[in-house]
Write a structure and sequence with these properties.
Helix 3 packs across helix 4 and helix 3 runs parallel beside helix 5. Strands 1, 2, 3, 4, 5, 6, 7, 8, 9 and 10 form a ten-stranded mixed beta sheet that branches. The radius of gyration is 20 Å and the shape is elongated. It starts with 9 loop residues before the first strand and ends with a strand. It is built from five helices and ten strands. The chain folds into two domains: 94 residues, Pseudouridine synthase I, catalytic domain, N-terminal subdomain (Alpha-Beta Plaits), CATH 3.30.70; 138 residues, Pseudouridine synthase I, catalytic domain, C-terminal subdomain (Alpha-Beta Plaits, 2-Layer Sandwich). The longest helix is centred in the last third of the chain and has 14 residues. A hairpin with a 2-residue loop joins strand 8 and strand 9. By secondary structure, it is an alpha+beta fold.
């Protein structure tokens, strides 16, 4: 699953937050425009050699995080506090390192995780310029009670979520996930959808949001949503919500 650190190296676990607006997602890109590229470049400058970091999972271009987790192996003898300070000093303001600590060699940011928590934010109408980049601005009425009912009656629990994923490359056969929490929370014109599961498929959270919004608009009935879930087929009825409203809140270990 993961190799042990080289002799003299320590395995480090880091929790970071970032504004994904102007990055090409988490995963390394040939142009060096991903969050992974920026952090690895800073590590290479500090340590004098290339270091590969391993995240709990990818986030797409435009998606944000408050609690992304990654690990890496490196030799550092000055303590985690100085390491964190040195690493953070050369990063852009849009990437913040929250914690850095040494962990057991068996820890893996992805494979040791037992769940993830995401939130998605919608503003019903326009909003101020400080909020606008981080929400889906939606200008049509939504029946949020109906959305909450659909979330509880159809989507919550252990299901095959193939119909709510967008495969990238080779299809995965293990499309069953345990969706432990799916809350539709409204306060005035602000709508927040919170999703927690043992794992998520590619673009699954944004697809779930898109499906719930279709229910809220009256374009999709609760029974049609159930039929869609059971069909295991991706159709045009499921719209992928835009990335700017999505936040990776926490990785659970």
């Amino acid at each position: 699953m993961t190799s042990a650190p080289e002799q003299g190296a320590t395995r480090w676990k880091c929790v970071c937050a970032y504004d994904g607006t102007h990055f090409a997602g988490w995963q390394s890109q040939s142009a060096g425009s991903a969050i992974q590229d920026v952090i690895e470049a800073r590590l290479a400058r500090i340590l004098g050699g290339s270091v590969r970091i391993h995240a709990s999972g990818r986030t797409d271009a435009g998606v944000h995080a408050r609690g992304q987790v990654f690990h890496f192996d490196a030799a550092w003898r000055h303590g985690p506090e100085k390491f964190l300070t040195a690493l953070a000093a050369g990063l852009p303001q849009t990437i913040q390192l929250r914690t850095l600590r040494a962990v057991d060699v068996g820890f893996h940011a992805r494979f040791s995780a037992t769940g993830k928590l995401y939130s998605y934010r919608i503003c019903l109408g326009d909003t101020d310029p400080f909020t606008r980049p981080y929400v889906w601005r939606f200008h049509r009425p939504l029946d949020t009670d109906r959305m909450a009912q659909a979330a509880t009656e159809v989507l919550l629990g252990r299901h095959d979520f193939k119909a709510f994923s967008a495969f990238n490359g080779t299809e995965r056969s293990d499309t069953v996930r345990d969706l432990r929490r799916l809350d539709v929370l409204r306060r005035g014109r602000s709508l927040r959808i919170v999703a927690e599961a043992d794992g998520f498929l590619y673009k699954m959270v944004r697809s779930l949001v898109g499906a719930l919004v279709a229910v809220g608009e009256g374009k999709l009935s609760i029974e049609q949503l159930r039929e869609l879930r059971d069909s295991r087929e991706r159709t045009a009825a499921v719209h992928t919500a835009p990335p700017e409203g999505l936040f990776l809140e926490r990785v659970i270990y």
